[in-house]
Write a structure and sequence with these properties.
Blueprint lengths: L5 H5 L7 H15 L7 H14 L2 H12 L9 H12 L10 E9 H6 L1 E12 L8 E5 L8 E8 L2 E8 L8 E6 L8 E12 L8 E4 L5 E2 L2 E2 L1 E9 L4 E4 L2 E8 L8 E4 L6 E4 L10 E3 L12 E7 L5
Parallel strand pairs: 1-11, 13-17
Antiparallel strand pairs: 2-7, 3-6, 4-5, 8-11, 9-10, 12-13, 14-15, 16-17
Helix pairs in contact: 2-3
Length: 309
Amino acid sequence: MNIPNYYDILGVPETATQDEIKKVYRKLAKENHPDAGGDEEKFKQIAEAYDTIGDDNKRQEYDMRRKNPFAGMGGGDDIFQQMFNQAFGNRRQKNVVHDLVIDTELKVTESYLGANKEITYRRKLKCDPCNGSGGEKKICPECNGQGSVVRQMGSGMFIQMVQVACNTCSGHGRVITNPCHICNGSGTKDEMKTVEVKLPNGIDDGQFIRLQGVGDFRNGVYGNLVVRVKLVSDNNFEKYGPHLIYNAYFTLDDLKKSDFEIPHPDGTVRLRFPKTFDTTKPLRVKSKGFKGEVIGDLLVNQHVRFERD
């Protein structure tokens, strides 16, 4: 859609004040008036230009149309709202499943053997009296129930229309008019819940186990519980990839013996002291580590600890 440049028609810059525009209009109107021998068509253009940019409100709307060529195609921001609604669908209205992430400590030997672990955690339970709604609601007057609004960002030639969450309803599309007396409008209450989690053999530090439907109640659905493993050493055992590490501490009397024992999770392992005792190199026992896609080894770090006289 071609929009006439009223500033060029009057011969004024876009930064001209209203007084400057008025002064130029009077001069041009007098020179181009048909009664004074002027061109009638040009006179009409001058009058139309002044009628638009000679009024503050009309001038503002006109400047917006010139910078945003879509503004004249059926309602300014409406076309952008329609474009966003088509692109994103009614994503806000769909039930989005959220994750509640908690940490649980797991011993290295528990990881080696695999473990069923009871975990107690706090979650958000649906409020029964209001059925999780938070209370009586009405359509948000700011976004008309859309949950989002279109904002103009930038100025001049660099204008971008951006869809953002509505501040009035926090993106929900509805606002509470009569909050629930039990949950005070939150739609949830706190609950301590216990679940049993099966942790597989060889699970490593930072890995996750996801349990569906036992997380927080949010947006009308129960989310997932994500259990993040925090591996801790125990009984001198550590984990390094597929390998099981044991830190063995010896006294001077221990070094006089021919062998020593390690309390391996599968059962006691007896090892002979090497002829050359070297604390810089671990002892390796093949295939006594974690058993996954790769079977690891048992690595024994040798440490000497004793009291001096």
